[in-house]
Amino acid sequence: MTATVLSRAGDMLLPRTGEWVRPRASTHAAAASPATMPASAASAAAEQGRGGQRAGDQTPPRALPQFSHVKRYWDPQLQCFAAKILPGEYYVTLHGEMIVTVLGSCVSACVRERELGIGGMNHFMLPLDASQGRTAWDTGVSAATRFGNVAMERLINDILKLGGRRERLEFKLVGGGRVLDAVTDVGARNIEFVRDYVRTEGFRVSGEDLGSDHPRKVHYFPAEGKVRVKRLVSTRDSTIYERERHYLHELARAPVAGDVELF
After folding, report:
1. Any idea where the domains of the chain sit in the sequence?
2. By three-state DSSP, how is residue 40 classified?
3. What is the CATH number of domain 60-253?
């Protein structure tokens, strides 16, 4: 991985367009504590570890059952298997896989259990909510917030079910660009939600790359906790733009999934 030149904008370090960077680090580092991986997670990780990945091996490590639909492939440049997630999806791995996505107005939370080295990433945006703070259940919580909660809690719960501990979860936040043409800044709404969520739940963010007018390509390595972000040159990439417009349209039509209880 080559060194990256950064340019300063205000008090934020931002990548120059077209360069790979790591999200800026938080000044609050969480203390590590000892842990033991559950037998089920340990046996699965031993079966397929990053050390066993090689260019000639076309068989990716076994995915968890709920992620059988996710496209996975061998990345010859980075010499590892990758799982590519689309808007509305998330992925959790026990292995040394890379998780890849491209973000416009959407945001991704990259979450890992520091001691176990397991983690995952989601890719979501909040629906444009016309309920003005009310849902069909009249709970006082907007449908958009309910949707964001589900997107975050599904990812977190899958990690906790594999033996992760809340106090050892590490968060890095990416995305929320002003990419979609809309009356409201969809990216800003997504950023506000995800920051408020981690603050409310008491999680610490160790790095972030949020906002700007550019879409991003994201590489996440849960085993090491590394995130690589590349801001794409075009602010109106047709594939990203159309994909997110379609996703936003589907969100407007689909009901919010049921509540998810956080462990």
Report:
1. 60-253
2. helix
3. 3.30.1330.200
Cα separation, 216 vs 220, in Å, equals 13
Contact yes or no for 191/107 (Cβ under 8 A): yes
Q: In percent, how much of the chain has pLDDT > 70?
A: 59
DSSP letters spanning 54-108: -TT---PPPPPGGGTTSEEEEETTTTEEEEE--TT-EEEESSS-EEEEEESS-EE
Q: Which long-range contacts (CB under 8 A, 24 or more apart) does 37-41 make?
A: 37/116, 37/163, 38/162, 38/163, 40/162, 40/163, 41/94, 41/116, 41/118, 41/162, 41/163
How do residues 66-105 score in pLDDT, each as one tens digit? 999 999 999 999 999 999 999 889 999 999 999 999 998 8
**Nearest 5 degrees, angle CA 48-CA 50-CA 55?**
95
If one counts every other C-beta atom within 10 angstroms of the C-beta of residue 133, the result is 12
Sheet containing 107-113, strands listed edge to edge, beginning at the edge strand earlier in sequence: 24-25, 205-210, 169-175, 107-113, 118-122, 90-93
- Provide the whole-model pTM: 0.71
- Amino acid identity for residue 98 in this structure: M
Residues 84 and 218: beta-carbon distance below 8 Å: no
Q: What are phi and psi of 170, to 5 degrees?
A: -115, 130
CA 13/CA 181 separation, integer angstroms:
26
**pLDDT number for residue 195:** 96
